[in-house]
Amino acid sequence: MKNPFESGHIKNYILFYIGVVVIMILFFVASTLFTDKKEIPKKVFNTKVDKKEDVVENKNSATKFKLIDVNY
User: Fold this and answer.
1) Which residues contact 10 (CB under 8 A, 6 or more apart)?
2) Rounded to a whole number, what is the largest CA-CA distance in the chain?
3) For 59-68, what is each residue's pLDDT tens digit?
4) Which residues contact 9 (CB under 8 A, 6 or more apart)?
5) Alpha-carbon distance 36 to 46, whole Å?
6) Among 20, 14, 21, which Cα is nearest to 4's?
7) Full-prediction pTM beyond 0.85?
8) Contact, 14 vs 20, CB < 8 A?
9) Residue 72 CB-half CA count within 13 A
10) Beta carbons within 10 angstroms of residue 43's beta carbon
11) How many Cα atoms within 13 Å fall on the side-chain side of residue 43?
12) CA 23, CA 29: separation in Å to the nearest integer?
């Protein structure tokens, strides 16, 4: 295999890599310029909340199960 530094092919490799980088930069610029930015409307929520207390009556005060007195 020939050494690319001696045969002069290194110039072609460098130009190839520079071309790839330039194409990547062009795609990045094109994607930022030509995309439409959508404005998302700010959501405003009603901070005044009518608190309706739902009172649930416990019809059966004596339950079948007894809770444990000691919590672990």
Assistant:
1) 4
2) 97
3) 555 667 777 8
4) 2
5) 31
6) 14
7) no
8) no
9) 2
10) 5
11) 1
12) 10
